[in-house]
């Protein structure tokens, strides 16, 4: 059983969360593109319905994409196993889901093609930007990179940390001596007053 420090693959829930996060960004881009397209292209339905199509399509397609990619992730032991199927299968599923969802909501072939095209453009941009066909690092390699970065950061900021700790110790010492001096002054004053009273 792996120890707490040992690297592991993300669970399906984490993979879906990651997909939904990137899906939200792509959805915003697709919404902006749809709004721009609505200036030149006459839509059969209102823009609000197209926006709803895009949001639903992205939610469903990102969840399905994570589920489709999961066997490949487990087989390769990498969060990004690479290969053409890893890049193309979720892309194709997203395309089909977006077209079907858009057609179901709008009943318009024209608007469904627009929504599917926008989703295809955003998803293709992600594939080429992240180079999803290339294999990513293994969990052990990711952990090694993280440990190396952590060590480099610790070394780089060691002087600053030491200086901050020194200042904190000095301030704590000053507060202690000021408090002790106040207490002694109060004690001396009480003693003086009790001597005067007697």
Automatic annotation (TrEMBL):
Q: Tell whether Membrane is among the UniProt keywords.
A: yes
Q: Which residues cross the membrane?
A: 12-41, 47-69, 81-106, 112-130
Compositional bias, Polar residues, is annotated for 188-198
Q: Which UniProt keywords apply?
A: Membrane, Transmembrane, Transmembrane helix
Q: Specify the superkingdom.
A: Bacteria
Q: Which segments carry the region annotation Disordered?
A: 168-198
Record-given protein name? Hypothetical membrane protein
Organism annotation: Glutamicibacter arilaitensis (strain DSM 16368 / CIP 108037 / IAM 15318 / JCM 13566 / NCIMB 14258 / Re117)
